[in-house]
């Protein structure tokens, strides 16, 4: 068993050292976002704002899995993966009682579900906009353009949801 684990660690290190390409949404970023989301729940940040970031996290996970599979023979695979990951996450949150409906509703949805839908939608639109700008200009406008667009859009959305919750709902 120890030889097998050593072999797995060795192969993983080789794969890490000789990585074949760079993905737009790397596993390290996805893991960091997941850790940040866990911390936000512990700090008591409102579920709708946590949901916005969770929607972005799930979107990045969907894009990462799409890049990982690399099979382009299925029409709308990226979009299907995106929606499937968000839907399965929300269903599993309901199943295990992580969604608190007594915490308040926005548009008749629990705050966390509302945030996940809004964050996922914004994250997807920003990815489409980023690809459009890269195609139009033939290159990136500045280094880390995709990361900056994604994070800034989620930040602006979080501020918008915060204002919506505290002043209008």
Automatic annotation (TrEMBL):
<feature type="transmembrane region" description="Helical">
    <location>
        <begin position="105"/>
        <end position="126"/>
    </location>
</feature>
<keyword id="KW-0472">Membrane</keyword>
<feature type="transmembrane region" description="Helical">
    <location>
        <begin position="80"/>
        <end position="99"/>
    </location>
</feature>
<feature type="signal peptide">
    <location>
        <begin position="1"/>
        <end position="24"/>
    </location>
</feature>
<protein>
    <recommendedName>
        <fullName>Rod shape-determining protein MreD</fullName>
    </recommendedName>
</protein>
<keyword id="KW-1133">Transmembrane helix</keyword>
<feature type="transmembrane region" description="Helical">
    <location>
        <begin position="48"/>
        <end position="68"/>
    </location>
</feature>
<keyword id="KW-0812">Transmembrane</keyword>
<feature type="transmembrane region" description="Helical">
    <location>
        <begin position="147"/>
        <end position="168"/>
    </location>
</feature>
<keyword id="KW-0732">Signal</keyword>
């Amino acid at each position: 068993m120890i030889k097998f684990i050593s072999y797995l660690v060795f192969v993983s290190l080789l794969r890490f050292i000789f990585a074949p390409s760079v993905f737009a949404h790397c596993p390290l970023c996805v893991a960091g976002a997941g850790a940040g989301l866990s911390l936000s729940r512990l700090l008591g940040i409102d579920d709708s704002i946590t949901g916005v970031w969770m929607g972005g996290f799930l979107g990045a996970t969907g894009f990462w899995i799409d890049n990982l599979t690399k099979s382009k023979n299925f029409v709308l695979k990226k979009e299907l993966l995106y929606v499937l990951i968000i839907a399965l996450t929300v269903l599993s949150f309901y199943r295990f009682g992580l969604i608190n409906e007594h915490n308040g509703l926005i548009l008749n949805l629990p705050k966390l579900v509302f945030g996940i839908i809004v964050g996922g939608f914004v994250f997807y639109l920003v990815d489409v906009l980023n690809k459009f700008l890269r195609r139009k200009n033939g290159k990136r406008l500045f280094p880390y353009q995709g990361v900056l667009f994604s994070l800034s859009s989620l930040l602006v959305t979080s501020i918008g949801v915060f204002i919506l919750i505290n002043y209008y709902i």
